[in-house]
Write a structure and sequence with these properties.
With about 290 residues, this protein is α/β, with parallel strands linked by helices. The relative contact order is 0.17. It binds adenosine monophosphate (AMP), fe (iii) ion (2 copies) and zinc ion.
């Protein structure tokens, strides 16, 4: 299989994406992709429909998830594939995360009310399957006419800007939520028969001057817990970063993975479309454990 025909990082309406599973698989088909995974945040509810849509479209779909995890002072994301979505320990951990996410919607509602922004949490909490995250809260704020004047005064024109200004660490509507520990999450997935890849690793290290050293130290630590891969190919990674991560994979015997993190239309500047990651002509092969 050609290396550029995979996309192992996509989000649907089962989490904060804007396309249904069927629309997303349709877009993958259109783009000529051969192997894909829908990796919704902290949920496996999309897996059955994704496999079904893949069968209909003639595309190989592998079960996927993106877990929000903590590690000391850091928040990271962990991609996982080919696990048993019915595994009892995994299901229990995800049910706990779902509750933490619902609790956070109420906590954020209270904080935003103090800051002068209102939204109706009910449609978000009524979602029968999947997970609820900050992007949906930000969209609910933008959709509420009661916020129109305030948004105009603050020149906030899209949900993404609102999320950045109000819902991220240190901002007025930010609320911490409990997460799995990175090493526990790796073990949980491994015991459910799956493989893991550390998603967009530089994401939370970018403010640190010694990011490169920390990246290696952390990757070694996670490798010892069973981490199998590193998301090397990602739309916001530069050529230099991509080369660096590929080298790290070789040195630590981790498998490189590739994904676009496409969430549907709306953030084309960073995440333009399915399959939109670059390998910069570097020499690599997709690892069979991930396909
Ligand atoms: P949560 O799942 O509630 O922790 O929300 C984090 C998710 O929101 C990330 O995984 C991204 O998919 C998304 N996200 C983060 N920042 C932004 C932004 N500025 N605009 C849109 N989506 C974002
Ligand atoms: Fe997301
Ligand atoms: Fe992520
Ligand atoms: Zn993602």
């Amino acid at each position: 299989m050609e290396a550029n025909r995979i996309d192992l990082h996509l989000h649907s309406t089962f989490s904060d994406g804007l396309l249904s599973v069927e629309e997303m698989i349709g877009a993958c088909k259109q783009a000529g992709l051969a192997v894909v995974a829908i990796t919704d945040h902290d949920t496996v509810d999309q897996v059955a429909s994704a496999l079904e849509a893949g069968r209909k479209a003639g595309i190989r779909v592998v079960p996927g998830i993106e877990l929000s995890v903590g590690h000391g002072e850091y928040d990271f994301h962990l991609l996982a594939y080919n696990f048993d979505p019915a595994n009892a320990a995994l299901a229990a951990a995800l049910a706990d995360q779902a509750q933490a996410r619902r609790d956070r919607v109420h906590a954020i509602q209270a904080r935003l009310a103090d800051a002068g922004y209102l939204f109706d949490p009910q449609p978000l909490l009524a979602k029968a399957e999947g997970s609820v995250g900050r992007p949906e809260i930000a969209r609910a704020v933008l959709a509420n006419p009661a916020n129109a004047d305030r948004l105009r005064q603050e020149t906030i024109e899209d949900y993404s800007t609102f999320l950045d200004r109000y819902l991220t660490t240190g901002q007025p509507g930010y609320v911490e939520r409990r997460r799995l520990a990175m090493t526990d999450a790796i073990r949980l997935i491994t015991e459910a028969g799956g493989v893991t890849s550390w998603a967009h690793a530089p994401w939370n290290l970018r403010r640190q001057a010694d990011a490169e050293i920390r990246l290696r130290t952390l990757a070694e630590e996670f490798r010892a817990a069973g981490l199998a891969g590193l998301e090397v190919f990602y739309p916001t990674h530069s050529r230099e970063q991509t080369k660096q991560f590929l080298r790290l994979c070789r040195e630590l015997d981790l498998a490189p993975t590739a994904g676009s993190d496409y969430h549907g239309p709306g953030r084309e500047n960073l995440f333009p479309r399915v399959g939109a990651w670059q390998d910069f002509g570097l020499d690599w092969q997709p690892d069979q454990r991930f396909l």
